[in-house]
Each structure stands twice: as C-alpha cells, then as structure tokens.
Design brief:
The structure holds two protein chains of two kinds.
Chain A lengths: L1 E5 L2 E2 L2 E2 L1 H16 L4 E6 L14 E6 L8 H15 L1 E6 L3 H13 L3 E6 L5 E2 L2 E7 L4 E7 L4 E5 L14 E6 L8 E7 L11 E5 L10 H10 L2 E4 L1 H5 L20 E5 L5 H7 L4 E6 L12 E4 L2 H15 L1
Parallel strand pairs in A: 1-4, 1-6, 4-5, 5-12, 6-11, 7-11, 14-15, 14-16, 16-17, 17-18
Antiparallel strand pairs in A: 2-3, 8-9, 9-10
Chain B lengths: L1 E5 L2 E3 L7 E2 L4 E2 L6 E3 L1 H17 L2 E7 L5 H10 L3 E6 L5 H14 L4 E5 L10 H9 L3 E11 L2 E8 L2 E8 L2 E5 L14 H9 L2 E5 L7 E7 L8 E3 L4 H11 L4
Parallel strand pairs in B: 1-6, 1-8, 6-7, 7-13, 8-12, 9-12
Antiparallel strand pairs in B: 2-5, 3-4, 9-10, 10-11
Helix pairs in contact in B: 2-5, 3-4
Classes of the chains: A alpha/beta, B alpha/beta.
The complex binds flavin-adenine dinucleotide and adenosine monophosphate (AMP).
Chain lengths: 316, 248
C-alpha cells in the first residue's frame, strides 16, 4: 500500500505543476504515515525531488517513452502500479495528464477524480473537494474503491518544500504497442504556454483589432507571461484558437491574470476564475469583470497599457 | 460509416448555479438545458460526414426523460436516430459503462464524446470508454479526416498540436476547432418537423455500480470588493501587485 505521484517532465525538465502534485502527495503520505513514491519516465536529473519530500523514485527508461503517447505511457505506468498496489495516485491537471488519467485509472481498476481542489476531507470513505460547473461551484466526491487516481487542479495547493533522502530505482520499460501513431508534432518552443504560465495577459474585443495586439504582447513580454484572448477575438480570427480561454476554451489557473478590454461574461469568468489574482483594465466602470477582479483600472486600454509597460520595464 | 455522438445534457452556460435539499442536489429550477457545447462541435462534424460520406449518425444520452428535448434537438440538427439509456448518470465510470454496452451491440466506426461536460467537468468518459472497449482515444481533438478506414486526427497540446493516425474505429474528445463556431447548425422548421418522425429509442440501463458518489455541493466564497487604481497612477497598480498581492 502506498502513495504515488506521477512526475511529468519535458526534455528532462520537471514541470512546475508536478512539484505541486509532489507537495500535495507528500502531505497525504505524512497523514497516512507512508513513504512518498514518485514515478518518472526517462528522467536523468531528479535532484529537485529531494527538496519536495520524495522518498523513493522509480524512473522508467525506454526510448519508446521519449514522446508522450497515451497508450504506451499508461501501459508502462499501470504495469508498475499493479505491482506497487498504491492507494492514492496523484497526477497534475495538464492536458496530457487529464488525457492519461481516466485511461490509467480504468486500466488499474481505480476510481478517477479530476479537478481536485483540496486535501482529502476523509480517508474512509476517501473524499475530496472538486471544482465543478466550470469553477462556478465545488462538490464533495467520495469513493469506496481501494485505489484512486486524483488529478490535482493547478495552483490549488501550492509548492511546499520538504527535505528527504531520495532512493532511486531505475527500471526498464515494458514492451507495449499503441493503435495510435504519432505522425508529427508542431510546437512553438520559444513561447510561454497558457498552461505553464505564472502570468497570463489576455485581450478582448475592447482592443478593437489584431493590429493593436502588440500592446498585449509587449505587456506579456515584460512579465514573461503567456498571451490569451476572449472567445469572440478568436472567432473573428484576430488571434489563434489556441489562445481562447474560458468555459469553451482553455482553462486558466495562473497566479496573475490580467484582462484588458474584456467585459467579463459568465462564460469567460468560468474559465479563468481559478486564477489567484485578477486585474481588469476596462473603460466601462460597469463592466461585470470588476465584480470578480482583485484590482482594476477604469480607463482606456490604449492609454493605460503603454504606461503600464513602461512602469514594469523600469522595475525589471 | 456509423457514427455515435455521446451527448451530455447540461445547464445553459449563463445559468446561475444553485443547490437544493441541503446542498445535496443541483437545483434545476428555472434552468435552461443545452447540448454540451463540446458535444455540439462533435455533432456538427458528424453531420458533415453524413452529408459528404453518407454516414449514419446516432446520438446517445444516459439520462432520464428530462433529457429528451435535447435529443430531439440533435435530431432536428440532423442526427438520424437517438438512443436514451434510462438512468440518472451517477459518475463518469457509470456513463462510460452504459455507453460501452451499446458499443458492444452496435458497431461504430467513430465515437464522439466531448472534451468535457461543462457541469461535471470530469473529462473522463471518453478515456474510460476507450479502455473498456479497447478502442483508441484522442482527447482535445481539433481536426479529423477519414479516408477509407483510416483516420487522421489533430490533438491540441500545450503550445501546439500533434497529428496522429489510426485505423477505425476511434473515439475522439471533441472541442472548438474541430469545427468553427459559424459551422454550428441552427435547426430549421423542416428539421424540427422531421425530428418528430425519427426514432428515439429508450433502453433500460445495465445494473452497473458507480465508483464515486457526489453528496454535497458548495459555492465559492464571495469575492472581496475590487481595489480600483486611478488610471493616471499605474505605478500604484505595480506597487500593489508587487508588495500586496506578491505576484510580480
Ligand atoms: C455557449 C457559449 C460559450 C462561450 N464560451 C466562452 C469562452 O469560453 N470564453 C469567452 O471569453 N467567451 C465565451 N463566450 C462568449 C461570452 O458570452 C462573451 O460574448 C465574450 O466573452 C465577450 O468577449 P469580450 O469581453 O472580448 O467582448 P465584449 O463583451 O464586447 O467586451 C469588450 C469590453 O471591452 C471594453 N472596452 C471597449 N473599449 C475599450 C478600451 N478602449 N479600453 C478598455 N476597455 C475597452 C468594453 O467596455 C467591454 O467591457 C461564450 C458564449 C456562449 C453562448
Ligand atoms: N450522461 C451522459 N450521456 C451521454 N454522454 C455523456 C454523458 N455524460 C458525459 N457524456 C459524454 O462524455 C463527455 C465527457 O464528459 P465528462 O467526462 O463528464 O466531462 C461529454 O462531452 C459527453 O460526450
């Protein structure tokens, strides 16, 4: 019986969300007085895991695991999990983890819970708080299953350091095939993605047209932020679909979300509400977004943004 | 080609979310129900295959009688027939199990689920179904073309996309991008009339136990009042973000 956290890495760099998952799983393992076991794939630099309390790491190495492929990943992981007989498996809520989670849970006959937003409320039956209705509410979900896979909402627990003596066990991958073939992968490498960003700068119809987006991009650049937009902005083709955030777009759970010229329609808010701090810049004091923001400036984006960019440049 | 589109019946995106019976149940009073937006993108793609490749499109929902207007709407949009599995959906595992039973009886070349439902947000039915019926699943699907028995699919990933291929059958998790917003079909009078003649089959549910229970709902804490900063004084905003919110 054990508590396991799955470590997501890309090109040997552990994702920040995985360190949050480790922090969270560590707390559970302490409550249950168990060791915290981590599982990684093709990782060579794991020193940082010692700072977050991992007691034992299983690293599966195999050329087949170089690129994420859901079936080969889940076959390898389920094979190991079946041996370790975990009670609780914690994964992040990245797009890949949310793809992997239900398949993995089903393979090891576990219950699956996504959008987990709290530490366990009880262990018997096992229950946690989860967000639902696209962040408009929470529910308490419980299970009687002896194994549960939890996908932890980003930024819901935070990073908590915790020193440990990590024991490493290298294992080989298993023979596994997938009916899916990856033909190609297109990825912008020099751009901060919405999912990974600490700060997201987002523009709405108030920016009037794509020719004004340099303001959003410049602000994002000084902040090291990702850029995003409201739905009509991507529907009109001012920005790519991949930047559309909200209920029907990408979810945002950053530390800071800056919304410029976005009215704050309920469908937009639903998708960005789990960001910690929200700043709104809008020239209409009645814009609904002001009601769910932490900080706001009532003003014209075309005047406020250049000043804000200059001010930030001065402190960086 | 046979296509199954799994439809989740969800509260309209603008609905105020309230609970009843001591916060143990969703309060549907005054709530308008819609086709889950992610499922509607998938259904629209399915209708495209119906028009181009003569595909037969079946829509399916696991739900009680109150879901029937949504199924009728799918028929009015163009689906050939509808199936309702008569049970209150308890969790994603339960729903996937019910759908898997139908997939064992009828052979589908393409099974469309939404990326996630906007009420339960589990993003799990497609994945669990994939393991149950041993059929590949492509989540966050933003592109799909079919040539003979071969599917080419695009999956949205962080900061880009991935192109995949497989032999049919395949399950996809549909979302915006698979079709454009402007492709969505608004049922016309003829569609609505025809929908009345189409088959809506009601099947009993299989006795499958759910794996999770949801017993209690909460609303988020009310938000503190926004702190407004004068537009002439942006440095004050920077100061607050740095020293008060500590996010810079
Ligand atoms: C089923 C469904 C799903 C949806 N899903 C989403 C979703 O996922 N994400 C999403 O974003 N929307 C979604 N929507 C759309 C949503 O309802 C709103 O229409 C949309 O969010 C509005 O975008 P906006 O704020 O950019 O534009 P608007 O509502 O037009 O707001 C523009 C804002 O800019 C301000 N402004 C104008 N000029 C300036 C200026 N010079 N300086 C500063 N401010 C200025 C205005 O005061 C206004 O508040 C959905 C709708 C439906 C029906
Ligand atoms: N009750 C249901 N009946 C039929 N399909 C459903 C039901 N619930 C969810 N689905 C399908 O599964 C997808 C993912 O739902 P979920 O796992 O709840 O986020 C939805 O977009 C639907 O396509």
């Amino acid at each position: 019986m054990s508590v396991i956290v799955y470590i997501e890495s890309e090109e040997n760099k552990i994702k920040k969300a995985s360190l949050e998952a480790v922090s969270y799983a560590k707390k559970i393992s302490e409550s249950l007085k168990k060791d915290l076991i981590a599982v990684s794939l093709n990782l060579t630099d794991f020193s940082i895991l010692k700072n977050y309390g991992v007691d034992k790491l299983y690293n599966i190495s195999d050329d087949k695991l170089k690129v994420f492929e859901v079936n080969i990943y889940s076959n390898n992981l389920s094979n190991l999990f079946n041996e370790l007989e975990p009670e609780i498996i914690v994964i992040t809520s990245s797009a890949n983890s949310r793809y992997l989670g239900p398949i993995l849970a089903s393979k090891i006959d576990a219950a699956y819970m996504s959008n987990v937003a709290s530490l366990p409320i009880s262990y018997s039956p096992f229950s946690v708080k989860r967000s639902c209705f696209t962040n408009k509410a929470f529910n308490e979900t419980s299970t009687k299953k002896s194994t549960v896979v939890l996908s932890l909402s980003s930024n819901s627990y935070g990073l908590h350091e915790n020193k440990s003596n990590l024991i490493l066990e290298e294992i080989k991958g298993i023979d596994s095939n997938s009916a899916l073939k990856i033909d190609s992968l297109e990825k912008l490498t020099n751009k901060v993605t919405i999912a990974d960003a600490d700060i997201v700068v987002s523009g709405g119809r108030g920016l009037k047209g794509p020719e004004n987006w340099h303001l959003i991009e410049d602000l994002a650049k000084v902040l090291g932020a990702a850029t995003a937009c409201s739905k009509p902005v991507s529907d009109m083709g001012w920005r790519p679909h991949s930047e559309h955030v909200g209920q029907t777009g990408k979810p945002v759970a950053s530390n800071l979300y800056i919304a410029v010229g976005i009215s704050g329609a309920i469908q937009h808010l639903a998708g960005v509400n789990s960001s910690k701090v929200k700043v709104v810049i809008n020239n209409d004091p009645e814009a609904p977004f002001f009601r769910s923001a932490d900080y706001g400036i009532v003003g014209d984006a075309f005047e406020v943004l250049p000043k804000l960019i200059e001010g930030l440049k001065a402190i960086k | 080609m046979n296509i199954l589109v799994c439809i989740s019946n969800v509260p309209d995106t603008t609905s105020k979310i309230n609970f009843k019976n001591n916060d143990s149940e969703f309060d549907s009073n005054g709530v308008q129900y819609i086709i889950n937006p992610n499922d509607e993108f998938g259904l629209t793609r399915a209708i495209w295959f119906q028009e181009k490749n003569n595909a037969e499109v079946t829509v399916l929902t696991v739900g009680d009688q109150t879901c029937e207007p949504i199924l009728r709407k799918c028929l009015a949009i163009g689906a050939n027939k509808a199936i309702r599995i008569d049970a209150v959906p308890k969790d994603g595992f339960f729903v996937a199990s019910q759908i898997s039973e139908i997939c064992k009886i009828n052979k589908y070349d393409l099974i469309i689920c939404g990326r996630e439902s906007i009420d339960y947000n589990g993003a799990m039915v497609g994945g669990i179904l994939s393991n149950m019926i041993n059929c590949p699943y492509v989540a966050n699907c933003i592109g799909l073309s079919i040539d003979n028995k071969k599917a080419t699919l695009e999956r949205e990933i962080d900061g880009g996309k991935e192109v995949l291929s497989c032999e049919l059958p395949v399950i996809i998790g549909s979302q915006k991008g698979l079709v454009e917003e402007t492709d969505l079909i608004i049922p016309n009078m003829r569609g609505i009339m025809q929908a009345r003649q189409k088959t809506l089959e009601v099947l009993p549910a299989n006795s499958i136990k759910n794996l999770t229970d949801t017993n209690k709902f909460f609303k988020p804490q009310p938000k503190k009042e926004v702190k407004l900063v004068d537009s002439e004084d942006v440095n004050e905003l920077i100061n607050l973000l740095q020293n008060e919110a500590k996010v810079l």
